[in-house]
Amino acid sequence: MATFACVDDGNLLSVAEFEVFLSFRGPDTRLNFTDCLYHSLVGAGIRVFKDNEEIRKGKKIAGKLLHAIESSKIYLPIFSRTYTSSKWCLRELTYILECSSKANDKVILPIFYDVNPDDVKLKTRLYLDVLKKHEKEFGLDEIRQWKEALTEVARIKGWGMKDKG
């Protein structure tokens, strides 16, 4: 069963509206940057969605995850070196972009963690090579959507966290 991360009082919530949705590659940032950011936001009284590992089991984005994206007002995609190796991150990003394009009250604030915006804009081999590998498993239409989402979100001014130690 999928669970949502604590938003304000230490209890796990299964249905809630969130102010912030964190999209990140767990092995890259879960135990350092993302965890620190999450606890800082929660400490400031902000309702934050941070996924539980179990939510990723299954072939499609779970309904609860879709609801968390839909109900959030601010999206913080944390682009890291292996962000594109996760089909879940790419699917989340595509859905985030779709939701934000349909509502004026949603905003995407990208964070470039140990990558440059040009990596995410697909101007370097870092993400392009991984997307090429995905072509064997996923259709070209889905790969095209992922590429469009990456390049569009990377055009948004965000925060660079490269070489910040």
Q: Which terms summarize this structure?
A:
165 residues, Rossmann fold, 6-stranded parallel beta sheet
Q: Could you walk me through the main structural features you see in this protein, from its secondary elements to its overall organization?
A:
By secondary structure, this protein is of the alpha/beta class. The protein has one domain: Rossmann fold. Helices cover 43% and strands 12% of the residues. It contains six helices and six strands. The chain has helices at residues 26-43, 63-71, 87-101, 117-120, 125-134, 140-154; strands spanning 20-24, 48-49, 74-79, 107-108, 111-112, 159-160. Strands 1, 2, 3, 4, 5 and 6 form a six-stranded parallel β-sheet that branches. β1, α1 (26-43) and β2 (48-49) form a beta-alpha-beta unit. α3 packs across α6. The protein starts with 19 loop residues before the first strand and ends in a 5-residue tail after the last strand.
Helix content: 40-55%
Number of strands: 6
Going by helix content, strand content and strand pairing, the class is alpha/beta
CATH topology: Rossmann fold
Task: Describe the main β-sheet briefly.
Answer: 6 strands, parallel
Which CATH class is shown?
Answer: Alpha Beta
Q: What is the CATH homologous superfamily assignment?
A: Toll/interleukin-1 receptor homology (TIR) domain
> How many structural domains can be distinguished in the coordinates?
1
End-to-end gap:
36 Å
Query: Which spans have pLDDT < 50 for at least 5 consecutive residues?
Result: 1-16
Radius of gyration: 15 Å
Tell me, what's the shape? globular
CATH architecture designation? 3-Layer(aba) Sandwich
Mean pLDDT: 85
Structure annotation, total helices: 6
- Written as H for each helix and E for each strand, in order along the chain, the element string is EHEHEHEEHHHE
